[in-house]
Model the fold of this input.
Amino acid sequence: MFEEPVIEISTVEVKTVTPDTSIGKAIGIMEQNSFHNLIVLGGTTDEIHMVNIQDLLMASNPESPVDVFMFKPHCIHKDTPAIDAIVEMLGSGQRAAPVVDSGGKLLGIVTEYDVMKRGVHSFILKDTEVEDAMTADVVYVERTASIGKARSIMRKNNLGHLLIVDEHNRLTGILTEGDILRRIYKPKQRMTAGEYKGEKVPRMGQPVYMVMSTPVITATPDANLAEVAGLMCEHDIRAVPIVKKDQSLRGIVTMHDIMRYLSEFRERRRVNIEIQGEIEDEYKDLAMRIIDTEVRKIVRLARRVHWIKLVIKKERARGGVSYHRIGVHVKTPDKLYVGYGEPGGTQTLIAARGAGEIEKRADKRRWDFIAALKDALLSVRTQMEDDKDRHKRK
Done:
């Protein structure tokens, strides 16, 4: 999952500007190329700097040089695994990061959109429902609210977007900080020269529906994160509201939500697996592949897994025939799940915060080691899926 070097998912044909480039020209380059960030090279030092369009749009004088708004970004080494690069971007608070070699030479830039493009093909995101990553507590205003009120709410809640609903609380539009800047404060552009002349229009008291974006690109609760990532790339958007069939709000998924989910998945995947007992050589390769596959599925189901323990016991039945009895213990923040694979069927023990319940499931007799291993792992995964379904129904 995102194990390839970050340079493989990065944009390597990088457009850059110099520190003395005018803000108006930089904005023109960014809008023509659908950039949200732009790298600045040159000047008195060879250091890499960066600017973002939100800052530039706030400028009062489009003729000023970009060095007023440029900052020194966190850079990522080209060989860094993509998943680790995601963690670094989240930690830096950047939506994009220059990719460099060991000498600090610029080789490319990785953005949240690059991560989303990679995520479209990720089995991890394809297997993850939007409800596992979305923000359910959505902030919104009615379409008749003033633009000034909407912007105040966005600033108070540190939001880059705000959902707009009608009088029936059905989604009707979305407002972004970019919408406000472009439609109210954005200078007029002469496309031939790529320059701007400032003109402010006092419209903060007008209703928000005057500047909101509509129709809204949405997804339904049964969508997966790979599909949402695809919508973000296709429509150049950073957030996708999740709505029911009647257009009532269920939640919202942002690029940051998906990035955070991937980061947390990496941490959840690093689970300490203890094996007590011996896996015989003839079973070892296949057994380890099965364990790795099932543990990945278990980790996807749980918010977090503290540890996993496999207990393998080889016993002999009457007549000297050997068989294996296998137990799988999975500790999460909420439960200790225990599943057994043994001859005569699967016995499942569910220990929920001190309360125990034993469930026996009749099945054909299983003497084979691999079958018993699958039984025990599947037993735990089934318990977790049942818990997840019960949680959804609440």
